Structure formats: structure tokens, C-alpha cells
Amino acid sequence: MRLTGVGRRYGPVGPWVLRGVDLEVPAGALLRISGANGSGKSTLLRLLAGIGAPSEGRITGRPRTAYVPERFPSALPFTAIGYLTHLGRVHGLPGPVAADRATAWLARFGAEEHAGTQLRELSKGTSQKVAVSQALLAEPELLVLDEAWTGLDAEARAELDLAVGELTSTGARVVYVDHDPRRLAGTVDAAHRVEGTALVPDTTRPPEPAPQVTVLARARAGTPLPAALPEGTHAEVDAAGTARFTVAAAHSDTLLRTLLHADPPWHVRAVREPVADANTPEDMRR
Q1: Pick the CATH number of 2-201 from 3.20.20.80, 3.40.710.10, 3.40.50.300, 1.10.260.40
Q2: pLDDT 10s digits, 41-69
Q3: In the sheet where 212-218 sits, what is the strand order?
Q4: pLDDT tens digits, residue range 139-154?
Q5: Can you give the pTM of this predicted structure?
Q6: H helices present in the chain, as ranges
Q7: Contact 62, 16 (CB under 8 A)
């Protein structure tokens, strides 16, 4: 897929949002797009996804495409499963196949219990899980993600990271925008930045990973993990029922408040602070 001399403006005499954009999106590539708020990132993603045409230039070789917009139209008259099945059929899937894939993706993102809920009644986080599921169930050859991680809980964000890797490993292309510069930073094939009306290589290095804090906690048997965990929290539960939460040190206080004020509350057993020396004995890291 290639963009050649692509420009976009709104109205015949409106100012140019993008102009002279040249971009190649090869098979299997993971591309990151960055830029200031209002710089034209979303405009570029919509052009890549085929939602609207360039005002000048050409886009060639666009494969079968799926798109997750920055804002999900949650007022549509569907249940979650009905919407996903409908979108699957729009993508060309037979109805039963679309329904099966819709169910599988809702389960993968931890939203299967909301399959029969009307879209307008879903929380922001669950709506975003539906938005991401509608794109992934189509098994696209080009996936365009505009802030798709925003609103997802920690487990769903990790699941989307995994899904992106699975897609690119099959030869699909993924182009994304995300407010966190560390998002998928270790696997990006190319990074570009919108500056003015141009698209330029982004040569800035992503920031070093933030220091991490590990919190060990337990709750009553059968208690689900809190839904509103801080951005970037990783959670796992061991065989003994102890949950291990790993979060950036800057968000550790928020995590502790979330656990203590949950209903039912979590009992915090240990907080392990980050240390500079990896050779420090384990009992001195607590």
C-alpha cells in the first residue's frame, strides 16, 4: 500500500490539513503515527482506512481494511452482539461465522457478559471493547487504530497488544496512533510524525520504561479484578489466589486506593518498590 503526494483539506478553499504525504505501508508492518493534538493524525488514519478520499494525490494498493475510530458511535440501535454480527456481515462474513467470531472476541476482551446489552447502555470501557472487536473479527489485512487503547482496562490493553502482534505475524499491516509513546515501542517497524501539513520520520526515541511497583493483594474467593485499574497496570492471579499487580510507580497510589476502596475491598499483603540494582536481595526490595 502506498500514499503518493497525498493532501487533504476540507472544502474547496479550506486550509490544507495534510499535503505532499508520501508513505509506504508494506505487508507485515507496524507503523506508528504521532503528532500534536489537532495536527492531522486522525485525518491521515481516515485516509488510510478509506473513509474519505484525498483532495490530491493517490492511495494505491489498499487491502481489506478495518478501522477503530477515536470516538465510537455508541447510540446505534443494536446490542453488542448484534452490532458485531452486523459488522461482520458487512465485512463479507456469513452470519453464523460473524456471530461466532463476535462471541469469541467479546470473550477475549472480557466483555461476553454484555453481549446482549444495548450499545447505548454500555460503559465507555465496554463500548471500546466492542469497537476493537468489530475490527479484529474481520481478520483485516490493514488495521487502522486511532487511540484504540483509550478506555480499555489493563487486561484488555494487553490483549489488544497481543492481537496486533498476531496480525502482523500473518502479514497484515497495522497503523496506529496512541497517546502513550511507549505503546508497542519495541515492535514498531517505522514511526512518522505529522508536522505542519507534512509527514516526516519520527526519530525521537521512546522514553525509558517507567519504574514499576508490584503490589500483592488478596480478596474474597471469586472476587473479579477491579475494572478501573490505572493505565498500564498488569494483573495476574497465582494458584493460591494472590493477585500480583504491576504498575508504574507514578500510579501506585492510585492502584492502592482502587484496591482498598473496591467492593469487596482487597487486602494488600506487600508492596515491592522499584530498585536501581537488580542484584539487591529480594527481601530488601520490599
Answers
A1: 3.40.50.300
A2: 999 999 999 998 999 999 999 999 999 99
A3: 234-237, 243-248, 212-218, 267-272
A4: 999 999 999 999 888 8
A5: 0.75
A6: 41-49, 80-90, 95-108, 124-136, 154-169, 252-260
A7: no
